[in-house]
Amino acid sequence: MQPTFMTSRTIPLRITGALDINSSKQIHRTLLQRLEAGTDLAVDLSEITGCDAAGLQLLFSARKSALLRGTSFTVGAMSPAVARTFAEAGMDPTQLRGLPNASI
Prior knowledge:
This protein is α/β, with parallel strands linked by helices and 104 residues long. The chain has three helices and four strands, in the order E-H-E-H-E-H-E.
């Protein structure tokens, strides 16, 4: 796991509980509010207890939104539930790095 680099405009955000279709709308709203304020986001997913494909889509969507706004989106920690969902989808979490200005 890469270290998360914080700038003076970085806002740490810990997401807890489920990262799934039931919670994604509210989490997406929160992420967008922070990104619209022009802040860089450092997201901690270490306390996620469940994750599904909607949760993964949310991470990539937030990353794209950050890129379009000229801010950064980093994932500093990831729970086994999130890592397992990436694996089940045949994806590697480092695929978020495939986009410019991303880290995980």
